[in-house]
Amino acid sequence: MDLDAYQAARAGAWQRLDRLTRSRRRTGAEADELVRLYQATATDLSVIRSAAPDPELVSRLSQQLGRSRAAIAGAHEPSWRDVRAFVEVSLPAALYRIRWWTVGVMAAFLLLAIASGVWVATQPEALAAMGTPSQQQEYVDNAFAAYYDPGAGFAATVWTNNSWIAAVCVGAGITGILPVYMLATNAISVGAAGGMMAAHGELALFLQLIAPHGLLELTSVFVAGAAGLRIFWTWIDPGPRPRSRALAQEGRALFTVAIGLVGTLAVSGVIEGFVTGSDLPWWLKIAIGVVALTAFWAYTLVLGRRAVLAGETGDVTADRGGYVLATAG
């Protein structure tokens, strides 16, 4: 097919469709014309994609048809059905697909944190780097426990900070560097604090204050790091898909994780703000943390496995993901 000749013959109709789409007020006759031109242009796009798939022209017509479809049928309105599909299908599918990445990140984080803690607790020069003896004693006796001040303001601050860390890990995941840097610095920081508490005989207090909210909070950070690194690995090894398509599909699916982590971090923030620093018995505080973590993994493994077996990935549906050009396998 002579694409230039076909484009020249149909350009007038495409331009008319664009004008009618952009028009804020249309008569009945113009509305009917809009529908006819939309159908004709959809046919044109199908012909071009089959006979002469020029990427630029296909992209331009696809975008035009998307705008025209919205003008004809109205823009998509979010509904509770969409929210339910996100919670029950898209999010658990995305979480399930990176479960082993999450476990790997968790293992690396814990090893680094433990190594950091042991180093600070057993090496005098490392402990001295944490501050003067009086500063260390003040931190152990007062500052560490005083940080967990119960209240909505504290919970909101914790939630905002951790949500930002999770979003950065996922959003900047393609670099491969930033997620590793953020995870490593957090692991060393947590481990060093635990090591200093252990050196002063307060390791039990450290674990009691970290465990209630930290089980879910740290798991959320592990998931964010796993999602970011999975995007980076997709860039390195896109598999049978073109790299641009693989990145688009995985990026959309894994940013679903970032949205979902806002919820898990909200839960951990509530626990940190109202449970960790409360007067509840320590066994009950830790039990609350264990229940929250168990619920997260049950959600991921049960609903996620079911969604993945049904073919879900966490990506948007095909009609919202844009047109994709066929490529030779």
Kindly describe this structure.
The chain is an all-alpha fold and 329 residues long. It is built from 13 helices and no strands. The protein has helices at residues 3-22, 28-51, 55-73, 80-97, 99-122, 124-128, 133-146, 152-171, 178-199, 203-236, 243-276, 282-309, 318-321. α1 packs antiparallel against α2 (28-51) and α10 packs parallel to α12 (282-309). The radius of gyration is 27 Å and the shape is elongated.
In percent, how much strand structure appears in the residues? under 5%
Order of helices and strands: HHHHHHHHHHHHH
> Rg, please?
27 Å
Overall number of strands: 0
Query: By helix and strand content, what is the structural category?
Result: mainly alpha
What is this structure's SSE topology?
Blueprint: H1 3-22, H2 28-51, H3 55-73, H4 80-97, H5 99-122, H6 124-128, H7 133-146, H8 152-171, H9 178-199, H10 203-236, H11 243-276, H12 282-309, H13 318-321
Helix pairs in contact: 1-2, 1-3, 2-3, 4-11, 4-12, 5-9, 5-10, 8-9, 8-10, 8-11, 9-10, 10-11, 10-12, 11-12
